[in-house]
């Protein structure tokens, strides 16, 4: 089970995260309306961190994404808006980076709308649909994922909190495509500032109880 901690930006908090939690990925948000927006001021120190960095973008011009890949040394791109398969194809051609497509989940999911992304993305990331695009701290109905018809791996996101461990493990046990979780606002002391002890405890309980034979702890 993999862990992504999203919305990082404070250099000291990032160092504490790396030492105390060692997540598989760290998310940097490049959406100017987000309270977790990462400005260029911290690029020099963040680009040197050893945890793979996933850049989060919402309906951005490809040139902007290219500039942030370079500035922050991003490993993967998370598309959190209405980006089309054509956009993803062009982005991959121009960057050669792994792309994750966020699927914003409301009352229902039309799985067919995901089909054209299958050959293009590394993972899907399911998040709760909200006007602000992400970071809402709200869960969607995770039971909907049980009808997911594809082999493509996915991450679960949206309002995961300290109490989510058991539910996550139940879903992950039923679904081999379940790659990992994305943690954000419910583990914060302030926007963009993560509570390392809460994250550490979550990680220990999650990985310590993941009994899947294929679990990659
Ligand atoms: O976190 C934000 O402020 C944000 C704003 C706009 C687009 C994406 C954003 N976050 C990206 C993520 O991957 C979050 O981890 C995801 O939305 C879940 O957040 P939360 O519901 O707070 O756990």
From TrEMBL:
Q: List, for all copies, the residue spans of the domain called N-(5'phosphoribosyl) anthranilate isomerase (PRAI).
A: 4-203
Q: Which UniProt keywords apply?
A: Amino-acid biosynthesis, Aromatic amino acid biosynthesis, Isomerase, Tryptophan biosynthesis
Highest taxon listed in the record's lineage:
Bacteria
Question: Which pathway does UniProt place it in?
Answer: Amino-acid biosynthesis; L-tryptophan biosynthesis; L-tryptophan from chorismate: step 3/5
Q: Name one GO biological process term.
A: L-tryptophan biosynthetic process
Q: What is its EC number?
A: 5.3.1.24
Keyword Protein transport present in the record's keywords: the answer is no
Q: Which reaction does it catalyse?
A: N-(5-phospho-beta-D-ribosyl)anthranilate = 1-(2-carboxyphenylamino)-1-deoxy-D-ribulose 5-phosphate
Gene Ontology MF terms in the entry: phosphoribosylanthranilate isomerase activity
Q: What class of enzyme is it?
A: isomerase
What family classification does the UniProt entry report for this protein? Belongs to the TrpF family.
Q: What protein does this entry describe? A: N-(5'-phosphoribosyl)anthranilate isomerase
| Protein source organism | Algoriphagus antarcticus
| The encoding gene | trpF
């Amino acid at each position: 089970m993999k862990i992504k901690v999203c919305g990082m930006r404070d250099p000291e908090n990032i160092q504490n995260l790396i030492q105390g939690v060692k997540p598989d990925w760290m998310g940097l948000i490049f959406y100017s309306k987000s309270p977790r927006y990462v400005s260029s001021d911290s690029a020099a120190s963040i680009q040197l961190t050893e945890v793979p960095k996933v850049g989060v973008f919402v309906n951005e011009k490809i040139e902007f994404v290219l500039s942030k890949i370079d500035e922050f040394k991003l490993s993967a791109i998370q598309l959190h808006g209405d980006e089309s398969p054509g956009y993803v194809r062009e982005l991959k051609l121009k960057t050669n980076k792994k792309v994750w497509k966020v699927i914003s989940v409301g009352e229902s999911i039309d799985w067919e709308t995901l089909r054209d992304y299958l050959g293009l993305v590394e993972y899907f990331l399911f998040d709760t649909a909200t006007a602000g695009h992400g970071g809402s701290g709200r869960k969607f109905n995770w039971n909907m994922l049980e009808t997911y018809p594809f082999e493509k791996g996915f991450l679960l996101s949206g309002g995961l909190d300290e109490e989510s461990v058991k539910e996550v493990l139940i879903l992950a046990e039923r679904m081999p495509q379940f790659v990992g979780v994305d943690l954000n606002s419910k583990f914060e002391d302030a926007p963009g500032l993560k509570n390392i002890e809460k994250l550490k405890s979550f990680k220990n309980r999650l990985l310590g109880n993941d009994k899947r034979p294929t679990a990659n702890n």
